[in-house]
Amino acid sequence: MTTNQNSYSEEHFEFVDYTSVSNFERLITCIEDAVSNWGLKDGGYGSDDSIQQETFLFNDEEYELCYCVHSNTVETKAKMPLANTILFSENYALHQWTGKSRLLVLRPTQPSLKTKLFLSQRPTIDLYQAKSLISACTIAFQNMACRVPVFVPVGQARYNLYIGYMLTTQQPKDPLNETEVRFNMSIAVPTTNTMTNINNLKESFTQKLGLFREDYGKPAQVDPDTIYFSAVYTYHLKNWFDENWKYWPDEEKKDEEQADKRRSFSDDFESWDEPVKKRQQKHHALAFGSFNDPLRTITLKALFPMSNEQLDQYNMDALTAKQWQLDCEFAPENQKRAFLSSLIQQVIQSWITDPSNRDYLAPYDDNNLRDDMDLTESSTGIVRNFLGGSAHSKNANVSNQVTVIKSERVEDVVNLVFHPVSRRPRQDELPDVFQTQQGISLSSTKKLINRFKSTVPYRSFLWNLLFYSLESISNGKGNQSNHALIGFLKVVWEETVRQIRWHWENLVPLPDLDPFLYNSSNDKTMGVDLRYNIMHQKISMVNCCIHRMLQNSPRNGKETPKEKKKVEALFDNIAEEKRKVDTFSEFFERFIEGDDSVSFVPIEKRNIYDHDEVDDDINVEDDDVFYDSVEDVDVVKKKQQKEEPEIISRTSSMHDLNEAANPISMTDSFVRLPYASNTNDGDPYSNEAQDDKMAIKDPNVAEGGLYTHQTLKLLKTNEPMQIPVTQEPGFMTEDMILEQATQFEKLGSSNNATHMRAKLQSAQLFSDMQAFKAANPYACLDDFVRWHSPKDWVEDEDGGHLSSRMAEPSNIWHELWKSSKRIPCERQRPLFNTSSEAEKALHSLESTSVYDFFSIMLPTLGLIVYDTLIAHSIVQCIESVSLGMVELETLLVRYPWDSLRHGKITFDEALLKIRDQETMMCHAISLLRKLPKQHDLVNRLLLQRNDKVEEGDERACVFELFKNNERAISEPSYQEFVFYNQGDDLASEGRCLPFKQYAMINDTEIRIMLTQTSDAL
């Protein structure tokens, strides 16, 4: 029995409903589903997305239900809804006509282009069909408790007419007190004089209100004090074209004065007739933002607040309005242009996608996302260039693509880098922090550089090279492919390295490179600043070597070379290069044949800046075009090795040939160890034959003295102490320090190795001891310590003694003093081979491809962007712009530039921020030109696009903008009026049934939206 009951209970029963479902019910169900999915049921308002939509069929026609949100619309929560608040909205007409920030629109789907072409008229909805749709929405909204109004278009589409419905509740805890709001719109075309009068509009509203009151059993007569009235007059001002819209008015006046100003006769008369445009071209800056003014229109809305007082329409204008509202409309997103961020994006994309850049892995490669990826392995090209010395040949025969480069563009960039036409401020002349008018602290570019790990000094040589290259690219006409951009940088980089070599060979210091480590007039210590990237260090090494050679030239009896003429021919003569190669090839063949006595005297370097030395059969035209193939062809350049002080020729040997082929070998290097690396004993400074030859033979002869010390005297003879001429310290780059540290590690960890490392690190001290002994024949170690390290000399009653640490016998100073001989500075082995180290630095630069160069300069690229934006005065005036610069500064400092170099991330995040910042700056500049000195008003308009105009200076400034020639504001573009009655006596206590009429009048139509509220039951 139990079994039968269980089987009986497990049987399935099916109820079949044979009732047919109408299309109207299906429509209600679809509306309920959409309202529920969007979060609009139970009084909710869902998300703030501007538009959401869903489509469905009704009576074989397709409809779409759209949920529209207008963020600029503000709905009041006061007891008396001030309907005029919506008059400050913009763009979407239905929001403006109804006063609702959130609304639903049920309408037929937009026809396709094909349907539009073949239909004789646009689709319409008749009144009966529109009421059916509203009825379906009414049932769905009551079922779902949706409080968002819905509108359905009615009539011909060109009139834009709607009817609507909204379910409201004034007492949420009592659903029986729900009310319904009905919207009905009408239009009069064309306008008539009777309807444009305020009194006639008010009379029409009073008549409709009386009929509405009679439906509730109330008299049609209305107390005039219960009718409230509000108006808004709207004035449109379209922006005009102005190519100088980014300049301030005072800057324009200053430029005009300078353009018209003539130079006095005391100035150089050759520049007296210099064209104005040419003089104005001395100011170089990257363009940012858009070319045209992004501001489209400025709208002034003159508001007459809600009041039950009688108003005279003839006395109503903008000047008598109690409140002004200013709206601004900018170009849409699809029309906005951001030159600076687009330029950076194009250059980086060119660097990424160029087919010759095999050392770089694009960020879109999945292999770059490996967690175990070694950054050092991916940058072997750079490490090889700076440490290995082999030529960059990895990209040879990659592509046959040809890039066309205009020679004059390359010439302009190189000329600006090597011959600056205007003086630019030094780092110590710029403030570290800018204070805005609102008290916001902004870091200057100079200060921001110190927070980066790998960059170059502000407006230094490499900074200018990258800056002028970007400026030339941005000024290029026509669309340029990505390969053309990186191809242009490649040619510029090759010509720059060529000019650097010319400066070295002719001992001309490089411009915008400070050879001194400290910005002080008292401290003139030359050196390479290790705070900056390796590219800057290598070029600084060349520049320091040039300055060292110039310093030593007078001392060695050589004449300091004079600076050559201004560069005009930037590219080497092809025939001259061929003769150089042929000369070296002839020498090499003779050397291989066994003639070891031959000497290689290269052709005297021709001055490439002098047109007179260019062959007559080679004509260089202004419109020459250089074809730069992306294919990299390795050309091994044979260069002579120079020694101080002779820089023209030298006798060759097998060692010299090896140096020419591999100039970055450890032989004769400043960082090499002065002894065999496998030696653990012996004196690294003992070269008896060489030292004995150079040492002073006569023990009483003094040599190498520079000057006599004013107070110190020798302890043994009481003779005045002679201060000797000493060797200048050498220069070291980051990779040289790393290489030296590696050599020291090879010594091991024994006591002898530790002692040996101490000796090796005392090369400068050993040289100073030898020079001191040569200048002071009767000197002792105590004399040397008194001069070289005064803190280690302790004065006492007996005259003085060495400090405790210096007096220890194990101190290395004692050992070095004993082993040092009396050798003056000029006969000592040089601690730093200037020629050799300069050639090695040049070889590193020549072996560096443009891709490696650009990757190292990526942080500097970000700083150039920051410097371009912060240079504009708008940054210090507008608060929102200043805060945007602070955010950009933080982003650039924290950005993982190394990951970008090695293709692990993209630059999209930074590009988006740069684009937003330059767009905001352009908006602020445009507004501030129209509203001069109104910084607070401009800041408010930037944040919310519309805001109230305060009394005083702001209102006076806006009046100056909108006034006509008669010093009055012209007729409004359109007028809006609102008539409102609270309807307190039509419902029970605590409830009301508002009745409202909105009217908009312009030159072509009068539109009226009637809103009436009734009980839902």
Protein described:
The protein has 1017 residues and is α+β, with helices and mostly antiparallel strands. The protein has 33 helices and 21 strands. The protein has a 13-stranded mixed beta sheet with strand order 1-2-3-4-5-6-21-20-19-7-8-9-18. A two-stranded antiparallel ribbon has the order 10-13. Strands 11-12 form a two-stranded antiparallel ribbon. Strand 16 and strand 17 form a beta hairpin. It is elongated. It starts with a helix and ends with a strand. Mean pLDDT is 76; it is low at 73-91, 251-281, 364-400, 562-575, 596-668 and 672-684.
Keywords for this entry:
two-stranded antiparallel ribbon; 33 helices; single chain; 37% helix; 14% strand; 13-stranded mixed beta sheet; 1017 residues; alpha+beta; elongated
Strand coverage percent: 5-15%
Question: Given the structure, what is the number of helices?
Answer: 33
Largest beta sheet: strand ordering: 1-2-3-4-5-6-21-20-19-7-8-9-18
Q: Quote the average pLDDT.
A: 76
Question: SS-based structural class?
Answer: alpha+beta
Share of helix among residues?
25-40%
Approximate shape: elongated
Rg, nearest Å: 42 Å
End-to-end span in angstroms? 56 Å
Question: Major β-sheet, in short?
Answer: 13 strands, mixed
Low-confidence stretches: 73-91, 251-281, 364-400, 562-575, 596-668, 672-684
Number of strands: 21
